[in-house]
Design brief:
Distance between the termini: 28 Å
Strand content: 5-15%
Shape: globular
Helix content: 25-40%
Order of helices and strands: HHEEEHEHEHHHHHEEHEEEHEH
Length: 402
């Protein structure tokens, strides 16, 4: 019985040891909650449904310091600017370093910055010279007051023209046509599925597309961190960089379809030095959103922000303030990193985040390392050998003294 008790104690100790994810030596440390510097807008935003919580494993993507609903900035760095945006990230596109953020992994509604994901998903697969005819279905579910490129039913436009209309004028009509063209036999919905597949490939775990344009749809969310991943993927393409930096374009006439001119609606191109382009967004639910990139002294920084208000600075003014803050940091400043698609997304520590102001679903389940599993097996074998020893001795005595 003493042997059984010893084995039980050993098993109990192993089973109650805190779980450690395979490939990790320690649990992820909880990021302390620090409130984000914020300025109150003169007009309070309308009430919106609470976004879904983020699980602890997804919170730790890119580094434990990013696992917070509050502020994450490098130690000793100057305080980040006060903004109305409810979440934001500043990251170095080339090194992948995250310089700072506010609630970087929190679910937020994207509005038209979702079009960046459409570009990331379909630009590699669509021939820019291909000509597509616009159908009634492409236009029938669009509010006439929403942002449009200006295509017409029956009109024929090249894929390149549609990309320009998408990125310069935030054309919801262009988004529908591109999603249908890239969606194969599944049509527009196939294009949306390609967006979600691309988000999964990039490790953008908080992103789910319901519409190709970013117009509000059920269960449609993203995060400031995910948008930085998407920006890094799109800005890696020379064609995307050319489109997003275009200030004005002529959409040529095509087979009886009249041509027209479009101009870029991102004013930072002319007012913030080094701007390489950006994408704005707005819906009543999402408020103002923005993704942009600027270059200074050989550094390319991306800024992503969600949930901003029109006053006092608006999303463009807040983006400029955050970029100034990021460029003022030393090149090696970092609170985390942008993951890459080839990383093992599940080889990371899992732990609850402490000190947050709201609950996060998905508490970490016990996970055992290889060492713990081997130790458990050794304890079982040892217990079996100890229990079997008296029987072997009795059997041996019986063989000598029949």
């Amino acid at each position: 019985m003493a042997v059984i008790r010893i084995a039980a104690v050993a098993l109990s100790a192993l089973l109650t040891t805190p779980g450690v994810a395979a490939g990790s030596s320690t649990l992820a440390a909880s990021a302390p909650y620090v409130p984000c510097p914020a300025v109150k807008p003169p007009v309070p935003p309308p009430a919106a449904p609470s976004p879904p919580p983020v699980g602890p494993a997804d919170l730790a993507v890119g580094g434990e310091t990013l696992a917070t609903a509050g502020l994450a900035i490098p130690a000793g760095a100057p305080m980040a600017p006060s903004v109305t945006a409810t979440s934001w990230v500043v990251a170095d596109l080339d090194s992948g370093a995250v310089l700072g953020g506010c609630g970087p992994h929190e679910h937020r509604t994207p509005a038209s910055v979702q079009k960046m994901l459409l570009a990331a998903a379909l630009m590699p697969h669509l021939d820019p010279a291909q000509v597509v005819e616009v159908t009634r279905a492409d236009l029938q579910d669009l509010d006439p007051a929403s942002s449009r490129m200006g295509v017409v039913e029956g009109g024929r436009y090249s894929i390149e023209s549609l990309w320009l209309g998408l990125l310069l004028k935030s054309g919801n009509d262009a988004a529908n046509v591109l999603a249908r063209a890239g969606g194969g036999t599944a049509g527009r919905q196939g294009g949306v599925q390609a967006m979600n597949d691309e988000a999964h490939r990039l490790g953008a775990n908080q992103t789910h597309a319901a519409t190709p344009s970013g117009l509000d749809g059920p269960g449609q969310y993203t995060s400031a961190y995910d948008l930085a991943l998407i920006a890094r993927a799109t800005y890696a393409r020379a064609d995307f960089r050319r489109y997003i930096a275009t200030r004005a374009a002529e959409i040529p006439a095509e087979s009886g379809t009249p041509g027209f001119s479009i101009t870029h609606d991102n004013t930072l191109l002319d007012h913030y030095p080094g701007t390489l382009g950006g994408k704005t967004g707005f819906t009543d639910l999402a408020r103002q959103t923005y993704v942009g990139v600027a270059e200074r002294n050989g550094r390319r920084l991306a800024v992503t922000l969600l949930g901003a208000e029109t006053a006092p600075l608006g999303s463009l003014g807040e983006a400029a303030a955050l970029l100034d803050w990021g460029f003022a940091l030393p090149p090696d400043a970092s609170v985390g990193r942008l993951v890459t698609p080839d990383e093992k997304k599940y080889d990371r520590a899992i732990a609850k985040v402490g000190g947050e102001r709201h609950g996060h679903a998905g508490a970490a389940e016990p996970t055992f390392s290889l060492t713990a599993i081997l130790g458990l097996g050794a304890a079982v074998v040892l217990a079996a050998l100890l229990l079997a020893a008296p029987w072997r001795r009795r059997a041996a005595r019986g063989a000598v003294n029949p």
